[in-house]
Amino acid sequence: MDIIIGVGGTGAKVVEAAVQLATIGIGPTELRVGFVDQDKSNGNLNRAQYALSNYIEARSAWRGPEGSHKLHGSEDCPILRTNIETIDGGSGLWVPDERSGSTLSSIFGAMQEDNYLFDALFETGKVEKDEEQDMPLDEGYRGRPHLGAAAISARANSGSGFWDAITEAIKSVGSGSRVNIMIAGSVFGGTGAAGFPTLARIIRDRLREEKISSNVHIGGVLMLPYFGFPDPDEDENQNVARANEQLMQSRGALRHYENMLSSQHIFDQLYLIGWSPFFVMDYHQPGAGDQRNPALLPEMLAATAVHKFFTAPAAPDAEGVQQINVSARANERALSWPDIPAMGTNGSREFHEKFGQFLRFAAAFKYWKAHLDDDSSRKAVHKQAWYKAQGLDQLDWQNNSPSENITRLDLVVDDFIRWCAAMEAYARKDANFTFNLWNVMGMVKGVDFKRPNQDAEVAISLSDDDYAQFFESVVSKHGTSDDPMPDSAELADGLTEDSFEDEHDGMGSMIAALYTYSSVKEV
Questions:
Q1: Residue 499 lies inside a defined structural domain of this protein
Q2: Can you point out the beta strands (E) in 347-487?
């Protein structure tokens, strides 16, 4: 069993990135997802949950047990291959203290003789930015990881479906199964910095309690500072995480992790991912729904680390090895496909091929689905060779229409395009940085840097000219000497000459054909 837990807003963004990779066919066969955040209205968390919900519904439509329009297997069309569920069968979210207006004081209750120690550990005062004991936690820990660590540790044994599910997963190793638990969080901020090591230690403690010493592997993706905000104005809420404090906090946290990891076996594999220079956000929100930061490239790199952890052979348990991996690129001022960390034996080419094929498929899907959206559109093309070759003339469009399946797929395609657009826009925002991975900006109505918490709007469909252009230019070649990618005319030929009716059901044949002939290589 593979489990990923996103801690805090940045951890949720890593989970979102892992879901996006699963959309294109990069992920384990089965995946359980959980979130930890005191701020349950956090915008980053909400967007990750939205992407997860869209994925689960799309996969159910195309790969579930019911319905007539299905994708089968994963050889020719691996999209939506991973069966993803929440860890507890519900929202997957654990809020350490769900009471409204919760504070550290209310979590711990009356201190009595320990009150002096409580005062020594946590600030209290009349100035808002100094208050810790009675700071409302509804919007998270606001860059105070020591508050989060105390709250999470105090509430971990309070009973919840989240922790029950983790305990059951741990116990399942008794039947010989292997459990991989990946925890993603940031070294900066509040919730992630607090929960990242705390959750791992709590799980290790439970392993000892259950007397389990093998077949449970704990990995960590620790996000180093990679973006920053301007400080709030004097008339704004001052009790927020500040960009100029991130590096100091991170340096101190990393020293703590170094001491902790040198004395305790906590992580089997740890991945450190950052970015220099920082991506700059043009706004600041302390928490809640407006803390909805755009997708950024380090989160994609983090998702490749998640996949590598789930698929790479684990070191023998008896060795107690803690592997620490750090991301890097050849040129600080550029990013190309060979810079993406290898996830398998084929280096970064496998990633490029699947990522690029799905981007080209997204352009093709946006174009071709417009021919199928309604009766009049279908009537205009129903005599064409490709329409008959894909068996579309045999579908019962009135009583067994694939429209719902197409809509579900359209939602995850749009999520993926928006995700790519945000990463691309913020990479290209720096005029001195060369971004050489993809170009999806023509498929969206722009990214507003003044409102980074607003997602870009994806084009509903593509014209003939736009489709031909985007299909051939949406993804860069892996290497400059690589052969040209097949063009849209070759895809049209493939739709006319080939059919996947024997491998897939109903509209699934058309989708598999579109995907297959969107390959970055000759088919």
A1: yes
A2: 434-436
